[in-house]
Amino acid sequence: MRREHQGVAIAVLTSAIWGATFPVMKLALNDASPLAFMTLRFLLASALLILIVRRLTYCRKGVMLGVLVFLGFYLQLLGLKFTTATKSAFITGMSVVFVPLIDYLVFGRRPRPKVLLAAFLGITGLALLTEVTYSPVNLGDVLTLGSAVAWAGQIMAVDRLVGRLSPRSVALYQSIPPFLLSAAFSLLGSDFTLRPTLGLAVALIYTGGIATALGLSLQAVAQEMISPEAAALSYLSEPIFAALFASLMLGEAMNLTQATGALLIITSMLMGAEKKVNEFQEVK
Predict the structure, then answer these.
(1) What are the φ and ψ backbone dihedral angles of 84, each rounded to 5 degrees?
(2) Which pLDDT tens digit goes with each residue over 60-100?
(3) 165-174, 209-218, 270-279: which has the minimum mean pLDDT?
(4) Which of 55, 223, 227, 228 is 20 to 30 A from 10 (CA-CA)?
(5) Nearest to residue 34, comparing CAs of 92, 90, 73?
(6) Which residues, 6 or more positions from 181, have their beta carbon under 8 angstroms from its beta carbon?
(7) What's the distance, Cα to Cα, between the start and end of the chain in Å?
(8) Closest CA relative to residue 178, chosen from 76, 249, 274
């Protein structure tokens, strides 16, 4: 298997792990406020990763990466107060467009036409999968768009750090700042409500231990092999897995339109698969 295909496979596995968090969190948020859940999720992830990493060298860009992760989650949560879950999923997926844009504006790397076509197919597939319909732009849409920009920045930041830090260190930098910021915002806003249940404990173990500690480590491994544009396309498979897990756990079936969208996303992933360019080959 070619290196870029290995990277895409790992990125898709990561998306599968993340996709399962949607129905899990939907059930868990019956027992905890969103910011309280985020605080405990990232606390658990940080604790597990600290046990593995043990020694972490300070990296300013790593801290900035953690802030981007927090903004991605928090802006999406705020946006969901004013917009629908369908529009939120679609707008968040727009990060696939922002990645090549940031790559060009910040690093001067022009995206290849094949990558742009793959991004178009991916967004079209996402629109069909989420069955998004037009409605006037509201505050929630704007906040969610900010979340999409943050996630695009996160993908680019991981791309810049994977050659300098170990995958587990990259994951730890994406856990500690979100934990601290989530705790601060929840306490300052009096949004820390919690009802200890077995379901909540299972959700925290999965989202903190598997989706965050393991998932973010796998993301770093994948992005050692593939370009950030290919990674962004691969992460579009996350709503496919979210729909599949929702079908299994919540009884929400996928229709023909959504299945067509999923097929387009898979096509875009295969079309956009590109290996990571070595640092010395990058346009400065």
Answers:
(1) -85, 160
(2) 999 999 999 999 988 988 887 787 766 877 888 888 889 98
(3) 270-279
(4) 55
(5) 73
(6) 67, 70, 74
(7) 30
(8) 76
**Can you name the residues that pair with 194 across neighbouring β-strands?**
32
Tokens of 259: 């299945």
**Distance, CA of 46 to CA of 43 (rounded, Å):** 5
Amino acid at site 17 = I
CA distances from 201 to 24, 176, 242, 253 (A): 11, 20, 20, 27
Q: Which letter, b or e, does each residue of 72-106 get, where b requires 16 or more Cβ atoms within 10 Å of its Cβ?
A: bbbbbbbbbeebbeebbbbbbbbbbbbbbebbeee
Rg (CA), the chain: 18
Count of other CB atoms within 10 angstroms of residue 180:
16
The residues with which 275 forms a beta bridge, in sequence order, are: 226
**Residue 32 bridge partners (DSSP):** 194
Q: Who's near 60: CB < 8 A, 6+ residues apart?
A: none
Q: Are 115 and 100 in contact (CB under 8 A)?
A: yes
Gap between the Cα atoms of 167 and 5, Å rounded: 19
HSE-up (13 A, CA, CB side) for residue 207: 23
Residues 6+ apart with CB under 8 A from 17: 210, 211, 214, 215, 218
Query: Max CA-CA distance within the chain?
Result: 53
Cα 158 to Cα 169: distance, rounded to the nearest angstrom: 11
| Residue written as token pair 């319909």 | 133
The per-residue pLDDT for range 29-44, each reduced to its tens digit, is 788 888 888 999 999 9
**Count of residues in the chain:** 284
